[in-house]
Amino acid sequence: TGGIILAGNHVANADGVFMAIAAGPKRFMRGLGKQEVFKIPVLGWWLRANGMISLDRRGDIGAMRAATTVLKEGGCLLVFPEGTRSKTGEPGPPKAGLGFLAGNSGALVVPVHIFGTRKWPWVSKVELRFGPGVRYQGSPSDRDASLAFGRDVMSRIFAL
């Protein structure tokens, strides 16, 4: 119960779908997605209809407010801390948004390691491992603390 951020690694377009399937029996999951995918006619409509939030990755106060509201109202939100897919499968540097959202909402952050989607759809097995939740203790306006929190969560994801 309560606001929760599912923070996962991101290597394939299908990662969000698998996260939603895994969360589905317990929680309705919303998420942030790059604004470009919302411009794809049918996909954009479907994403909006399912509560996804369009995000301009160059900075989007409106999207961050909407995501914070979801969390403060007890919702479940998917965030990929790196802000983009990894082409190699190796972790990239996280953005400050995870710490910002966790700090502003008080939401629990649950690390999730997604295995088997890198070569999607040519995979035989997909596995998601959920780790224990962690809370952000810093100020949401402290960019360095938010980045450090993002790095900590990424290390927790890849330790699963």
Q: Can you tell me the residue ranges where pLDDT is under 50 for at least 5 consecutive residues? A: none
Could you tell me the strand content as a percent range? 15-25%
**Helix share bin:** 25-40%
SS element count, helices: 6
**Widest sheet: strand order?**
3-2-4-1-5-6
Can you walk through the features of this model?
Helix 4 (61-72) packs across helix 5 and helix 5 (97-105) crosses helix 6 (143-159). The chain has a six-stranded mixed β-sheet, sandwiched between helices. 38% of the residues lie in helices and 19% in strands. The protein starts with a strand and ends with a helix. It has 160 residues and is α/β, with parallel strands linked by helices. It has helices at residues 15-23, 35-38, 41-49, 61-72, 97-105, 143-159, and strands spanning 4-8, 29-34, 53-55, 76-79, 108-115, 127-130. The mean pLDDT is 91.
